[in-house]
Structures are given as C-alpha cells and as structure tokens.
Amino acid sequence: MSSAATVLESARSARWEGVGGPFRVIETPLPQVLADGEVLVEVELATVCGSDLHTVTGDRPGPAPGVLGHEQVGRVVAVGPGAPRCLDSTPVTPGLRVVWSVAASCLRCARCSAGMPQKCLHLRKYGHEAWDEKSPLRGGFATHCLLLPGTAIATVDESLPGEVAAPVSCATATVAAVVGAAGPVGPETRALVNGAGMLGLTAVAMLSAAGARVVAVDPHPERRAQALRFGASEAQPVGAPIGECDVALELSGALEAVQSCLDSLSVGGVAVLAGSVSPGPAVRLDPESLVRGLHRIVGVHNYHPRDLQVAVDFITEHHRNRPFAELVAGRHRLDELDAAFAAARRGEAPRQAIVPRVRTGRPLPRPTA
Length: 369
Hints:
This protein is an alpha/beta fold. The protein has 2 domains: 10-161 and 319-354, Medium-chain alcohol dehydrogenases, catalytic domain (Quinone Oxidoreductase, Chain A, domain 1, Alpha-Beta Complex), CATH 3.90.180.10; 174-299, 3-Layer(aba) Sandwich (Rossmann fold). The protein contains 10 helices and 17 strands. The strands form 3 sheets. Strands 3, 5, 6, 7, 8, 9, 16 and 17 form an 8-stranded mixed beta sheet that branches. A 6-stranded parallel beta sheet has the order 12-11-10-13-14-15, with helices on both faces. Helix 10 links the parallel strand 16 (328-332) and strand 17. The longest helix has 14 residues, at 305-318. It is globular and about 60 Å long. The protein starts with 9 loop residues before the first strand and ends in a 15-residue tail after the last strand. Its EC number is 1.1.1.1. Residues 36-147 form the Alcohol dehydrogenase-like N-terminal domain.
C-alpha cells in the first residue's frame, strides 16, 4: 500500500483515562496519507510492562488521557515517502514483521549528535504521550501504531512467538544496554543480578550465555528458582552474603539492591543501575572505596538503537533454550485491559499479553493496496 492510498479501516485504541479510571476503547480513523519517514504498523501482540503498571497505579507520572504500551510486535501496513530501513539495513516495506524502539529521536540535536539519541532533547516516547485527536496512534495498546521518523525498527523472524518478540522493544533491549554498559563479560566474570523479574531474568540469560557465573538475588523463592532455569549459578534471598563481583546489575529500583551492588564490587568492578527510575532515598557511597577499587558506576535509561538489534539477535538465538515464553501470561482483548492490569498487579506473570485484533463482533477488514 502506498503512502497516498486511501485507508478504509479504522483503528481501535484502549485509552487510559487517568489514575483510578478504566480503559476506554476508542475508534479513530487511520491516516489516509503518511508523512515522510512515517510507518504504519498493525499491532500483533503487546505486553504490559512494569512502567505501564506503575503509571496506572499512580506510582509514575503519565499524561492522561493517553494510549499506553511500548512493548509490542507488529506488521508494517504502509510506509510514507523516504521509507526508513531497519537496523540491519532491511528496507521497511508492507508485510514486514517488526519491533520498534520505545522512543523516536530527532537525530539532529546536541545529544543525538553526541551519540545519545535515547536522551534526545526532542524525544517522543511511545505509550507515554498525551492523547492527540489528530494523531492518536502513539501506543502499543491499539490495533495500529504510527511510527515517527527517528524510530529504530528491527525486523523479526516469523518463527519467533509474539509473546517472546513483544518484550524485546523495552525489556530485552534495556537489558542489552545494561549488559553492554558493564563491558566485556566472559567465563572469568562473576556477575550479580539484583531483581529476578522480567529484566533480571533476561539479564541472567544474557550474562550466562556470555559465560559469566551469575548470582541472582530476589526476595521471592519462585523467582529465585526461575533464575536458575535462566542460567544463574546461584540464586540467593535478599540479605544473603554475596561476596565480591566483577559486575553488578541493579534492575529492581529497591534501595537495598542498589546498595548491595555498590558494596559487592571487586577491584575494577562496575555497577550498572537501571531500576531507579523514580525518586527515592539516597544510597551510601564511600568515595575512598570507589577510588581505591577503581570502581565504575553507570546509569542506563532508555537504550541506544543498536541495543534493539542486539536484543533481537539474542532472543532469536536463545528463546528455545530458556523459558522466555513462560514469562508472559494471558491473551487479553483491548476491552479487557482492566483485567490484564489487575492480573499484572497480582503478579501472575512478569508480563500480560494484549492481542488488539481480537474483538467481539465483526472483525475489521484488512487494508488493501
């Protein structure tokens, strides 16, 4: 379908009305003409990320009303003039199965020019935008999403289950950034992973695949058992003696976990912090220990586009030998999003799946060229 083709189908979005309010399914027309560099994608499956849950519960600020969701996999429906290429140089064309970055960058500002497009001065984040009647398709909890220029896009193999592919857009790519920030990892590396949720388990799998000896720490026995299935050498409760580690990753945001990462570093060790995305108490930092230990402390927020391709490559290679599919439960319709979030609050699985195209009544027709 060309960018100038008339689109006869409408889109449906599950619009979040604000803290304490339900989701409302809104029907809006699809764009009839795409602008330069825009890509229209039909969402195959989305997952409820922890940040979505924190937004809905009021623990994280978010504009309302708006369409949440930033972990999804979909299929390209249409492309505008000057169609972009995927990260592996594959042309973006209708029919291509893809995942995309959590944000779109301008690629021109000082931060983009300095190699930090994930912190672009004009960043637009999918699932984090206020509702715009003129351009409503900005989140994953919808039948379609309109990708802006400056969005990193990666092609996804048809064999990859949707439940495994969708979290790549946020969880897997974020972990790829975290592990990359830790520097070279190999058989001599002893790594600490604090938090064995979706991100922590993915980090355990990535580190163990690189040959590292991984110690996972989590307060929940079932999560510790799961960490062993994802390749951890040890799984310890919070407060257990850990010993010195070359790499310490913090993915939960808990104050005690951050402190544990800082205190566990061996000489030359690096702590990578990614879980502390909300204001909280300060931690204790001993500058002498930092200096004499040649320690590094690195923060990771969002991720660089290259991390999305690393994530796709990793999950494609390893999803069969680690139980990634078990981390996603449910197959909720858009009009069942309240139930999906309730299940997420109960902790029934690290992720709940949303299948936007499943609906009651007559299914919408697919657009034609």
